[in-house]
Amino acid sequence: MSIEWIEPVLASTTSIGVVYLLGSLGEIYAERSGVLNLGLEGIMAIGAAISFIITIAWGHALAFLVASVFGMLMGFLLAFFTVSLRLNQIAVGLAITMLGSGLSGFIAFPTTRKTILQFLNPELPSTALEIQSAPMLPSVPLPFLKEIPIVGPMFFNHNIAVYIALMLAPMMWFLLFRTSIGLKIRSVGENPGMADALGINVFRIRYFTCMLSGVFSALAGAYLMLGFQPFWIEGMTGGRGFITLSLIILSTWSPLRAIFGSLLFGGIEVLQYRLQLFGLGATSPQFVLMLPYAIAVITLSLLSLESFRKRISAPAALAKPYYREE
Amino acid sequence: MEDEDLSVTPLVELNGIVKRFPNVVANDRVNFSLMPGEVHALLGENAAGKTTLMNILYGLYQPDDGEIYVKGKRVRIRSPADSIKLGIGMVHQSFRLIPVHTVWENVVLGLTEAGFILNKKKLTEIVKRVCEEYGWNIDPNARVWQLSVGERQQVELLKLLIRNAEVLILDEPTSVLTPQETRSLFKAIRIMAKKGKGIIFITHKLEEVFEVSDRVTVMRKGRVVATKLTNEVTAEELANLMIGRPVLFKLERPEVKKGGVVLETKGLKAMGDRGVLALDGVNLQVHSGEIVGIAGVAGNGQEELIEVLAGLRRADGGKVFIDGEDVTNKGVGHLIGKGVAYIPPESTRWALIRDMRLVENIALKLYRSKNFSGRLTINWRKLFEFSKKLVEEYGIAAHGPSTLAGTLSGGNLQRVVLARELSATLDGKVPKLILAAYPTKGLDVAATEFVQGLLLKYRSMGSAIIFLSEDLEEIMMLSDRIAVISRGRIVGEFSPREKTVEEVGMMMVKGSMA
């Protein structure tokens, strides 16, 4: 097979990888502070639906902004139930996923969507009210850099959201590992009781990380809609939120390693389409689709060994509600 | 406090501190003071109220009465964060560190002076500098789980020293250390004192009081019984103050002829929970019709011994024989089959399921018996009848066997445990070996007498009994033979008539001194 085949595969690997990357950046923060945001899939769906509508009404920039506001609200909801009411994080997360899928389907449903669009922007032409696709983010190839073989098409021939996401990852890593707020977040996820005794507000930290995770989940959905696949289909997130959750385990809760994890999982997804195209995976595309989960299961089994956990520092208090003893 | 120089304000002064818990007064009008540059030992047995008092000073508990002065100013300490602000720090017995984080991250956590962006280079240098001052050798970039126990303790101290704590409370700091680590800790404590810091050193080991402290306060049963300058007091005086004068009351003890050896241990070794050797070659024999009381200062291996004998803790060396059969590490089920009854410490918490009915709690052991269960099913009717008899026999204040265990009081729960362990044996016979860990702890007088009477009754019926108690007088009264345990070894065995309570107390404490 020739090189012409490789470069588009790598380019789409990055395109789809960014969905995973955005989702994981926020989720890593939530999990590092001890809250499992299992609602990622649902918040992503809401992000996609909202950005779809707002783009048509007001344009791209506001679409991302409004989607993140809704993501933040969903994150607040998650924090309220899991941090304040101390409900089971798995149950709350699944509920949020169901709420998100239902709500996104509802607001993007043709008749509801039409009403919302008319309300948001009465000047819209009638074709815009019926349209099933949103204008995609324009591609902004970076001069010179995009000429580099392999790396050029992979990283430097994309839309602005891809560049921002790729830059956010190291910034989020720095915030988590090199600042006092990051240290507080990680400590709260390891031993909330101890952090509390040192004067750290466990509840405030967890609310913050939950809302951050909500914002990033919604951004992942918005990017999916505007930067990768600009046609609205109900359920378009297609389990990518759950794949993100397993990706985080593989990336061992590090925003930097999440870049590689996202690209790997993005690559698997693209490869699966490609193999079908060549008729290779046609017989069993399920096998390739299974790979992300198989990798996650293996990582999880390794994590159950305490010696391994210590080395890669999975948050010890993950999914454990914090009760302040009086 | 005539001994004190009045021109210096004490770092800390506690006046008339009272702390009540349900059923017990943990601190009863306690006075305590700490001068700058002083190492003040707080000596007392377990449950004497030392840790409670210090938790009040550290802000974990609120006192019910009394005043706290820090450097002459009256304060209220509502939380550990408050006490840190006042320059008070505490190193607990279980460390409050995050194992997966590095040393410097643990030290810096919650330190506002560190700023938003953490300057790793600067912070590791500060950590290194403080380490040098105290002769410690810790790599600031090491992760805490890679460090030894002694080094982890140094990290705890580092946390306090970097926050400029002037009062350092150390809660039994040597209990987890090796002798070398202990020496290095004492050296560091002396350096801290020289810098004008005040150190409160909680301990129940006499030799440590003499090794490191300037002044000693002895507590017993929630009260301060004495505060003395260390160089003006002898070990004997301190031991007497700590253990207290006995109030003996008579108990009917029928003569029982001692039978053959039921339990024998040879060179028994086992690790404690913290990975330190808790049993270091225990040789013990218990005969049928005999009560052997294990006396020892808390934490010297008595609980580990009972756990190994009950099959709950692995023996890492040596052998256990029951009736001549080697049962070392044979597992709980096998031991129950051999007729071992086990009354665990805090039995109302560990021996019962509170959400289950009494009959179910009793069935937890009896379901193994052929008399009560067939191949697949349990004969509940028979069990119910049997439990009903037990409820009457043991005077359990419950409507009947279908009462939920959790609704009963502590004393009644203890009766349920005893009923199951002593009467509900698989073969319907008297238990061969009874392991009773603190069976009277927390019980009122009537329940205590009932339990003691029961142990004596089973002694007459031929059981071999091992008995633990925190109350030395009770051990003296109930035992046919006393074995003193210290640092995981039996350091003396004798009949209670041969020695006075003071002598045994001395042996318990001095044993740890050897």
Largest interface: A-B, 20 and 22 residues
Give the neighbour order of strands across the main sheet of chain A. 1-2
Please bin the fraction of helical residues of chain B: 25-40%
CATH class of the largest domain in chain B: Alpha Beta
- Indicate the proportion of strand residues of chain B: 15-25%
- Given the structure, what is the number of helices of chain B? 17
CATH fold assignment of the largest domain in chain B? Rossmann fold
CATH topology-level fold name of chain A: ABC transporter involved in vitamin B12 uptake, BtuC
Describe this entry's structure for a reader.
The complex is a heterodimer of chains A (about 325) and B (about 525). By secondary structure, chain A is mainly alpha-helical. Chain A has one domain (about 5-135, about 155-310): ABC transporter involved in vitamin B12 uptake, BtuC (Orthogonal Bundle). Helix content of chain A is about 75%, strand content about 0%. Chain A has helices at about 5-30, 40-60, 60-85, 90-105, 110-120, 125-130, 150-155, 160-180, 180-190, 190-195, 200-230, 240-250, 255-275, 285-305, 305-310, and strands at about 140, 155-160. A two-stranded antiparallel sheet of chain A has the order 1-2. Chain A is globular and about 60 Å long. The termini of chain A are far apart. The model of chain A has no long low-confidence stretch (mean pLDDT about 90). Chain B is of the alpha/beta class. Chain B folds into 2 domains: about 10-245, P-loop containing nucleotide triphosphate hydrolases (Rossmann fold, 3-Layer(aba) Sandwich); about 260-510, Rossmann fold, CATH 3.40.50.300. Chain B has helices spanning about 50-55, 80-85, 105-110, 120-135, 150-160, 180-195, 205-210, 235-245, 300-310, 330-335, 345-350, 360-365, 380-395, 410-425, 445-460, 470-480, 500-510, and strands at about 10-20, 25-35, 40-45, 65-70, 75, 90, 165-170, 200-205, 215-220, 225-230, 260-270, 275-285, 290-295, 315-320, 325, 340-345, 435, 465-470, 480-485, 490-495. In chain B, helix 8 packs across helix 17 (about 500-510) and helix 12 (about 360-365) packs parallel to helix 14 (about 410-425).
